[in-house]
Amino acid sequence: MAAPAELVGPLLTRCTFAPAGSAVTCAVSGGADSLALLVLAVSAGCQVTAVHVDHGLRPTGDDEAGVVAAAAARFDAAFDAVVVTVEPGPNLEARARAARYAALPTDVVTGHTADDQAETVLLNLMRGAALDGLAGMRPGPRHPLLALRRADTRHLCAALDLQPVEDPSNADPAFRRNRVRAEVMPLLDDVAGRDVGAVVARQAGLLRDDAELLDALARDIDPTDARALAAAPVALARRAVRLWLAGEHPVGADAVERVLAVARGEVTACEITAVGRVARSGGRLRVEPA
Known about the structure:
Number of strands: 6
Strand order of the largest sheet: 1-2-3
Low-confidence stretches: none
Order of helices and strands: HEHEHEHHHHHHHHHEEE
Oligomer: single chain
Radius of gyration: 21 Å
Structural class: mainly alpha
């Protein structure tokens, strides 16, 4: 069953799916955003496999997988269910996310919207991720819904009589993103008297253009050459360090400054969380186990 063209057509003009006929794997939790992703990916002509990952953290996992399976069958997409184990404990959100992505292909397509983009930018700002973090997620086939709003995905689901799964953990204030969504964004809207989510998402696009230009210039610098790094314009030196130590999240500003202090010979080494120990020897920088 295809979604009505008059319903999905205007939304597809704002999406960035892979070309029609491409095989894509969509992460579908059963929420409104991911169900809309499934419908729009099929409508874009992609050969879609919807994958539901059950973290085993809620007794409703089987029911949620059933919602996704039914939607996949309705819109002629393939379906796969994956179960992963995430033990209770600290950093549950981060560990669940890591387990989810480990169970999915590296080119998995997600249903992140402009609202998710704005939240991500604010969270990166709080982490001190500087320009890389403020540029947010990159639009393209991996994140094809970044120009849509949550209101768009919910409206699409309602129009198609799809019943999204409501994840109770999305209301848990123990998770920082939930507090940004429920407390910070409404407060910013009230203070600014406008839709700040849209503003932040647009700014991310502008900053991404700046970041790409600086990246191109910074690639001419060898970040392991301590003398060259110390002599480079500081903006480009910082970019060179960020590119060198890039991981799942951009390296924080404080960490970058510590690496530059090593390059200048002010200290012999420094520790970088999730990276290791950056040390200087013989005029070269290297990463060692922490």
